[in-house]
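Limitations
The structure tokens in this dataset are predictions for the assembled complex, not deposited experimental models. Users should treat interface geometry with appropriate caution, especially where small molecules or nucleic acid strands are included. An illustrative entry is reproduced here so readers can see what is and is not provided.
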Amino acid sequence: MVDALHEAHRAVRPGGTIIDLRPDSDHQPRILRGRREIGGLFERPRAEADSHFSDRAVARVVREGLLKRIRSGHFWYSLPPMDLPTLDAWLAESQRLGGYTRGTHALLARDPERPIIVRRALAYGIYERL
Amino acid sequence: MGKPIGDVGRVGCPSAMRPADDLELRGLRAERFFRGKEVLDIGTGNGRLAWLIAPMARSVVGLDPDPNGIREASREAKRRGVRNVRFKVSIAQELGVGNERFDTAVFSWSL
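Predicted assembly:
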């Protein structure tokens, strides 16, 4: 990841911008029915470790004096409504998400046809290329 | 309701469950870093973000290690007749852009 940041630094003009946008491991996905939050999803330990590794890589390149943080943060977005079998299938294939938080699936299974909304957070960092 | 609406929820696809519209760009509030700029989209996948950036950018180069995604994106570029976007297979550690320099690089879910 440090290598990738060094390579991006090489490819961007001085004074240019490098943007890092990825799922936010500090804010796990939430599950809503209607407007009510009823549970969540959790990330696989490997994905969480990768995310922290990326955070450290960015911090290192900033310390090296190659980048300067302009701003960072996170924002939420909602996925289109889906039913429980679709969400189950997605989670089974997901390399990032490991499953439902405790009790969530049981609640969803009571009414499997009712639309589910997943809200995810994306983390971003915007950096000036020095 | 079998499947989600739009271009998300393709089970098994690396870009599954990403926003289908410009939510990411709006969330970033980073238009000034793209408008009139030469942009590198690292981890472009099928070009999903590149299509959103292209109308405001001077040019966009989308890079991804997945040849299938790049093939799909290149086909789509032809279909749309977009002239300021091109795609290339490459990895983030070795972008393969030679001496070309850009104003903005975006790691799109790829760092």
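Some entries come with short summary sentences. For this one: The beta strands of chain B are 38-42, 59-64, 85-89, 102-108.
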